[in-house]
Amino acid sequence: MNKDTSSIKWPLKKREVYHSHFDSTIWNDFPFRDDDIFIATYAKSGTTWIQQIVSQLLFNGEINRNVANMSPWIDFRLPPKEIKLATIAEQQHRRFLKTHLPLDALVYSPKAKYLYIARDGRDVLWSYYHHHSSHTEAVYEMLNEACGPDVEPFKPPQDDIIEYYRKWLEQDGYPIWSFWENIATWWEYRHLPNLLMLHFNTLKKDMPGEIRRIAQFLEIPIDENKWDLILKHCSFDYMKEHAEQSSPLGGALWKGGAKTFINKGTNNRWRDVLSEADSTRYEKLALEKLGPECAHWLATGKMPT
């Protein structure tokens, strides 16, 4: 960034968020570097895909880069924050870390770069249901042991996907966290010079163009001799085949392993399952919670002009 940023009103942390999965207090002690990259999303919105893209840009198409190890979920409860902060501090490469927090629950650095990717909530839910249903029993034990008695325990899904969707929608993200506030808090600051808003649909339609846009934003020059390799390594088929490099603990947290974590990467699986009323309810809530411009972007990937 070469622009004068002295007049910008930067986001401030306003609250702590506690959940069976995360503890936002880790940000209070985070030692930023000026070239840090943060990948922010709601769950199952393209997080791992963006991590893979950033890795390929940083390491010029190299294979055998374990993205899950290099790019930890910073606010996740496991491992304990003292261990996680120490591990992150030891990294010598340009760091790229992920968060699933709303923007107002983290500390925001004016010098770092932020990539936020969003996806239609119905696609998110279909992907997350598979993700949640495929956890091993050990996952629930570890999370519930880490979160303590003041946080609602995390349990396997108790409903079929339709009822799960309805509860998620009507209870604002249950059993994970609020979808609407996650989108809204990042959308509010979409004009910041160090925040790039991305969309899952646009990335699927034009992955080469979006990767170039990401590279330009991150100020990473592209080696055109490695361009085809970078594209290959960011494809869904390649990531599925090498899923153990993208999956936390090599996929040990999911039944079926890493290839369960990297599942389908497709949209619209809900269209033949949801009733018109169930789908319309989502669209009405999107308008109510986000406003027409953000709701339209979330549905289509098209930014307002």
Automatic annotation (TrEMBL):
Residue ranges occupied by any Sulfotransferase domain in the UniProt entry: 34-290
Signal peptide residue numbers: none
Protein's UniProt keywords contain Transferase: yes
A family per Pfam: Sulfotransfer_1
InterPro entries: P-loop_NTPase (IPR027417), Sulfotransferase_dom (IPR000863)
A GO term for molecular function: sulfotransferase activity
The organism's place on the tree of life at top rank: Bacteria
Keyword Transferase: yes
Keywords: Transferase
Family: Belongs to the sulfotransferase 1 family.
Protein name: Aryl sulfotransferase
